[in-house]
Amino acid sequence: MFRQFFKDSVIYGFSSILTRGVILLLLPLYTRVLSPVDYGIIDVILVLTNLINLTIALEISQGLARYFPEVKSKSERIGYASTALWFTVAVYTLFAALALPSATTLSYWILDSPEYRSIFQISVFAIWSNGIFYLTQNQLRWELKPKLYATTSIISTFVLTGTSVILVLGIDLGVIGVIYGQFAGSITGAALALFFTRESYNLIFDWNKWKQMVRFSLPLVPSSLGVFVSLYIDRIIIKEFMSLRDLGIFGVGYRIASIVSIVMVGFQGALTPLIYTYHHDPRTPQELARIFRYFVAIALLIFVTVSIFTQELLILFTNPEYYAAGSVLPLLTLAILLSTMYIFAPGLSITKKNRNDCCYQYPWCATQHRSKSLTRTSFWTSWRSNSNMP
Question: How far apart are CA 304 and CA 297, in angstroms?
Fold first, then answer.
């Protein structure tokens, strides 16, 4: 497992460095074209995208991740993957069908102005494509195909970047050009991921497998929402009590701090599927502890470096309009590093005791399941955005 982890993490890490690096290198160009208010709008759309991704599909991708590696029968694997896919497509399509006719009202509620109606409409399509992309790309991880995962990420990012550059820098469409780029990248990535995993899908929907996956993933939704609040409550508060401009400055600081995620994504991409595949191996806990020590050493080095060179990073990536982000950059770097550590605590997912966390949080649920002798345990999980918005 240890050797395969580093082999896969190099592949995941390389694709992340290339794809996120391209986005990061474009930041100096975008900050000279997009105002802090524009970035504020982008961040609101990003928060909305992540919220929708966490809720409407009931985190079924996590249920698929748990059960897919265990089954060896090809027909069983097709049953799990196809059920998760068609459920995801159905719920995201329903979301789009409900949101588009209400674009003016939702734009007023979410972006504080009905003038952003067209931006919100394009965002609905971007959210739809992003949700499907998230499921289909992760399917490549569950099938232990890191090279195809990397290929999908790289091509998707270059389509996103190329479209955004043409529309934002060339045609001067502003924020709406960024959203168009997000849609183009996500739909391209989803198409590629579906092509690479085409043998895992069929026109079937198995209710029993759906119930099995959702029974595992549904308790993750309130837990993930709690993590979502912890990750994005700062942006929500800034937007509600300050201004979109302040949110834009904060968001640019967050993007610079996200440099750390470029390094850490190799750990994240490779570790989870390997844990699910090799958790029966008695050597796995020791190997996991060994990987964790490497993680901590790299994380501390990155944090110290960003803290020392905060001002230089702002000069490199932005203009004076965004320099106020320097006050939050070191703290955001540390927060991002800490938020990635959830991958080293997979115990409850391995034992399939996610429902126990529901009982822990809600007494009525504990009463309902006490007859089944469920042991109440605490649960901690996290979710990360794979959004490539600039």
Answer: 11
The answer on pLDDT for 378 being more than 70 is no
CB distance 383 to 227 below 8 Å:
yes
Alpha helices in the chain (DSSP H): 2-33, 36-55, 60-67, 74-99, 103-111, 117-142, 146-164, 175-196, 207-217, 220-241, 244-257, 259-278, 284-308, 310-317, 329-339, 347-350, 354-361, 363-369
Helix axes 60-67, 117-142, angle to 10 degrees: 10
User: What is the rounded CA–CA span in Å between residue 203 and residue 311?
Assistant: 54
Cα(261)–Cα(256) distance, integer angstroms? 10
31: three-class secondary structure by DSSP = helix
Burial degree of 34 (CB within 10 A; 0-12, 13-18, 19+)? buried
> How far apart are the C-alpha atoms of 145 and 143, rounded to whole Å?
6
pLDDT digits (tens, 9 = 90+) for 156-174: 989 999 999 999 988 888 8
Residue 335: name the closest of 236, 253, 243 by CA. 253
* CB 71, CB 274: distance < 8 Å: no
Distance, CA of 59 to CA of 135 (rounded, Å): 10
pLDDT: which is higher, 13 or 93? 93
Please name the residues in contact with 215: beta carbons below 8 A apart, sequence gap of 6 or more.
63, 355
User: What would you report as the CA-atom Rg of the chain, rounded to the nearest whole angstrom?
Assistant: 21
pLDDT (tens digit, 9 = 90+) per residue, 52-79? Answer: 988 999 999 989 988 988 888 889 999 9
